Amino acid sequence: MAFFTKSEARRAAQRATGTRSAQDVLRDGRKSYREDDHFDVFLSHSINDAELVLGIKVLLEGQGLRVYVDWIEDKALERDHVTVQTAEVLRKRMKQSDSLLYLATDNASKSKWMPWELGYFDGFKPGGVGVLPVLDESDAPFEGQEYLALYPVMTKEDIPPAKEERNTRQVRLPKRHLAPHYMGHPKIWL
Predict the structure, then answer these.
(1) Does domain 4-158 bear CATH number 3.40.50.150?
(2) Are 49 and 107 in contact (CB under 8 A)?
(3) Which are the contacts of 28, defined by CB distance < 8 A and separation ≥ 6?
(4) H-helix or E-strand containing 132?
(5) What region does 11 belong to: left with phi over 0, alpha with psi -120 to 50, or beta?
(6) Fewest CB atoms within 10 A around its CB: which of 1, 154, 160, 171?
(7) Which of 185, 188, 184 is nearest to 168 (CA)?
């Protein structure tokens, strides 16, 4: 049972960026997606974690998953302010995604959008939410905000390798809620 680490995510981001910034690479990825595309994962994240977001996106895509990050597909969004227009775009993108992974970092609790995205997606697609911690050490204990205990906590082992034979591309998280005092490690079933 190993979590993704900050150093692992940063190394993946550095391999992807070369000399460019993580934000530049994420924005450049926009041209490979269309407005009506379907995604395996909506990656809910703090804008303050650009390098970690890029690294996790690269690692998940390396497993064969299509990952939505808002500043790639919808870079005109106003993430600094809560607006009806931004909420409408995010709702649309969540509907185009099979699952939501909540990127649990030190900055997540400061995000204006992450709790809203989590609640909306859970209401729209019950059982489709997972918490993906990014920690200093892969075997460190994860203790997120209390409400995160309602959702399965994902580890690296829960993301099957791209070379595995899959019956479907859809990411399926277990359809169970966890007791508030327990954070388990369920599998993503593909």
Answers:
(1) no
(2) yes
(3) 20
(4) strand 129-135
(5) alpha
(6) 1
(7) 188
* Residue 34 tokens, joined: 């269309």
CA distance 133 to 144: 8
Q: What is the per-residue burial (b if ≥16 Cβ within 10 Å, else e) of 158-190?
A: bbbeeeeeeeeeebebbeeebeeeebeebebeb
Residues paired with residue 130 on neighbouring β-strands, in sequence order: 101
| Residue 93 binned pLDDT confidence (cut-offs 50, 70, 90) | very high
Q: How far does Cα 81 stand from its chain's mean position?
A: 21
According to the model, what pLDDT value does residue 97 have?
A: 96
Are 188 and 154 in contact by the 8 Å Cβ rule? The answer is yes
Candidates 154, 151, 155, 153; CA nearest to 177 is: 151
Residue 77 CB contacts under 8 Å (≥ 6 apart), including other chains: 70, 71, 86, 89, 90
Nearest-angstrom CA–CA distance, 173 and 190: 9
Residue 84, pLDDT above cutoff 60? yes
